[in-house]
């Protein structure tokens, strides 16, 4: 049931708070927007690895604009957060904005007594396909194994859960131009996955923008026979012409966009058709409000959307609502086994441990955070990923 405001009284924001939860590989930055109406509040997520304290500070900066405002004016508040400070935000400030925007949509849905996807126009599909991470997010553990066959062994765990699509990262920290041994080892990893899964399972590869366009093409040509669902972030997304080179040189779709924020950073990518799939992150790109605008832009170019989402449970919930409301949505990334207590901090855990999810039915984002349980895992510095080339020069992780 909706939570009605007192007759004749406008709901007002009274506080914007952060709750940091350490989940081993990253700190989940959960954002709580409180109102003067008892029981009416919203949750969002602004997780950004290795930038946790910066994001928490940016949430505090934005809170100054929001106290006393009507939380139901989601678009008005988005414009305030984006435009009313002289310095426009980069990834840190936009991540903070994204978490707050999610929380405002959560409030809006709770106040209306409807799921957020209903407020976005209603579900456009009966179920949403999900894809799993090989090893439950422990990709670095897999890559350190000497045997490429480990990839094939791990894929069976995902298949047993009901997934029909998986993503892996068998491409190492890359050189500018790669050696035959490195190229062949990566190909053996993908070969092991395809042999274990058969042709009925879709396989995506994530390059983490570690490669130059030349090295990405070298890898890709050896992988052409394995029918990849997509080839993700072969190089930095702002190098649009480099992405275009890779896209034209290889026979499978290129996906990118997780590091881009705001619709403006996606514009050239779409105009040049430098990728086949875009991957905005609802916790970075500008929240639910901006993610659906980016998706609408992509729809005009007949380019599908698959939101990036390796974060915590609030980001997952927000992404799923977008997935049900966006007609050109392809598939949703989920993490299910990064920490064993992942669902313990939720009062209504999401069932994402299988290959599909049904439309949300609870008001708002449909989740609640158990703050007492979450407090058991306070902030801790993330492990620094120090990566170097063979000659000792710094490499992209």
What does this structure look like?
- The chain is α/β, with parallel strands linked by helices.
- The chain has a domain of 244 residues: Alpha-Beta Barrel (TIM Barrel), CATH 3.20.20.
- Helix content is 38%, strand content 13%.
- It has 13 helices and eleven strands.
- Strands 4, 5, 6, 7, 8, 9, 10 and 11 form an eight-stranded mixed β-sheet that branches. Strands 1-2-3 form a three-stranded antiparallel β-sheet.
- β6, α8 and β7 form a beta-alpha-beta unit.
- The protein is globular.
How do the strands and helices of this protein lay out in sequence?
Elements: E1 13-22, E2 27-35, E3 41-45, H1 52-66, H2 74-83, H3 91-112, H4 116-119, E4 128-133, H5 139-144, H6 149-161, E5 165-168, H7 180-197, E6 202-206, H8 213-222, E7 230-232, H9 240-249, E8 254-256, H10 262-271, E9 277-278, H11 287-300, H12 313-325, E10 332-333, E11 356-357, H13 371-374
Parallel strand pairs: 4-5, 4-10, 5-6, 6-7, 7-8, 8-9
Antiparallel strand pairs: 1-2, 2-3, 4-11
List descriptors.
13 helices; 397 residues; single chain; TIM Barrel; eight-stranded mixed β-sheet; alpha/beta
